[in-house]
Amino acid sequence: MAKKITLYSLLTLFALAISYVEGLVFAFIPFIPGFKLGLANSVSMLLISKKQVRGGVAVNFVRIILSALLFGNFYSFVFSLAGGVLSTLAVLIFTNFKIFSFAGVGTVAAVCHNLAQITAAIFIIDTVGIIYLLPIMIISGAVTGFISGILLEIFTNKYPRIIPE
Predict the structure, then answer these.
(1) Angle between the 134-158 and 102-125 helix axes, to the nearest 10 degrees?
(2) DSSP secondary structure, 26-47, as one string
(3) How far apart are CA 85 and CA 92, in angstroms?
(4) Alpha-carbon 62 to chain mean position
(5) Torsions phi, psi of 3, nearest 5?
(6) pLDDT score of 47 more than 70
């Protein structure tokens, strides 16, 4: 049990660092607020694909909470949590089908993440006017989710035993 807690703690720290760096790198894209590649979500996708569902879910949600506390605010927490819940559900469902590669699962999860974020924004801002961002977010989510999935595929092929099943 101690080994798993240590592994999940290190993976949470790794995902948090990735999320922070992505936030710094992409902070200057004016037309897509909060744009990131979503590489931090690949950590939980890897764990879930290795049948470590509790660990994958825990890593993702602890990262979301810590990220909001350290670098964000209430709104970033709500948007990240909404996206995290729906994208994690998508990963759980689509990794069990085994008909999608990491690229396919990453694409679906990223689009779900963006749909949940837009939905949360509609309720928080109390206007549907924000929906104009939806096409941009779906396209960027599909592209970035695909890229994250490809990178995860490359990583797991190079280091197949990095996470024990």
Answers:
(1) 150
(2) TTT-TTSTT----HHHHHHHHH
(3) 11
(4) 12
(5) -65, -40
(6) yes
Q: Is the CB of residue 117 less than 8 Å from the CB of residue 69? A: no
What six digits make up the tokens of 58? 């825990």
**98 within 8 A of 121, measured Cβ to Cβ:** no
pLDDT digits (tens, 9 = 90+) for 108-165: 999 999 999 999 989 888 888 888 888 988 998 999 999 999 999 998 888 888 777 6
> What type of residue is 49?
S
Chain centre distance of CA 55: 14
Separation CA 48–CA 56 (nearest Å): 5
**Residue that has been written with the tokens 């037309």 in this structure:** 31
113/115 Cα distance (integer angstroms)? 6
User: Which residues, 6+ apart, have CB-to-CB distance to 15 below 8 Å?
Assistant: 40, 41, 43, 44, 59, 60, 63
**What are the structure tokens assigned to 103, written together?**
């690229």
Distance CA 20, CA 70 (A): 10
Question: Helix, strand or coil for residue 52?
Answer: coil
Nearest-angstrom CA–CA distance, 159 and 162: 6
Helix H or strand E encompassing 118: helix 102-125
